[in-house]
Design a protein that fits this description.
Elements: H1 2-21, H2 27-30, E1 67-71, E2 77-79, H3 81-86, E3 90-97, E4 103-112, H4 113-119, E5 128-133, E6 138-142, H5 143-147, E7 152-157, E8 160-161, E9 171-173, E10 186-192
Parallel strand pairs: 1-10
Antiparallel strand pairs: 1-2, 3-4, 4-7, 5-6, 5-10, 7-8, 7-9
């Protein structure tokens, strides 16, 4: 009897999770977005699943947005979307894989993370970099992963600016890692030396 009840609970939870993945962001997450703001919409290409783990989409004012690059660096940065858009960028078709079983090959466009750190004067040797969303969700990556030319802060997916669902205005692209580590709505990049 108890096992049957647990089975029903798991089935309901699984149905809810699938429903959330295939639905646009909740109205509270997309509140006050405008279709005139590039990338702020919750609809449009690319058409691949959306999963928010441990984070929820935030309304981001593009004119007020700043990407901080700080920590153990010589020249901390506060970058606007316009400044990010003017930086050298790369385009790569890379797969994103979710722990829930789906995967998609997506054309990403953005700034290599190594370039952003070099502009901030990161030391030649450091222990890790913490990527943090505007809502506080984080992941840590090593210097070796940062050096991968495909590790980037993406501004576009599928040839168009990121939608809110997919992490507008900027998200981490982290080849080889599960999608839950691809932080959406990146707001801060912090470089840390050994022992920090």
């Amino acid at each position: 009897m108890k096992l049957a009840a647990i089975g029903v609970g798991v089935s309901v939870a699984s149905w809810w999770l699938v429903k959330q993945e295939n639905s646009p962001a909740s109205p509270s997450g997309s509140e006050n977005t405008s279709s005139s703001e590039p990338g702020a919409s919750t609809v449009g290409p690319p058409n691949f699943p959306v999963t928010w783990n441990g984070d929820i989409p935030q309304n981001v004012d593009p004119s007020a947005y700043r990407l901080s690059v700080d920590g153990d660096v010589a020249n901390p940065l506060q970058l606007t979307l316009e400044e990010l858009g003017a930086m050298p960028s790369v385009k790569k078709s890379l797969p994103i894989r979710c722990v829930e079983g789906w995967s998609a090959l997506v054309l990403w466009a953005g700034i290599p993370l190594s370039y952003l750190l070099s502009q901030a004067g990161a030391p030649a040797e450091f222990d890790h970099v913490t990527i943090e969303s505007v809502a506080g969700y984080t992941t840590e990556i090593s210097q070796i992963v940062v050096a991968n030319s495909n590790t980037m802060i993406a501004l576009k997916a599928g040839g168009v600016p990121l939608t809110l669902d997919h992490g507008y205005p900027a998200r981490l692209v982290l080849p080889g890692a599960h999608g839950l580590d691809w932080v959406k709505q990146v707001g801060r990049i912090t470089c840390s030396k050994e022992g920090d």
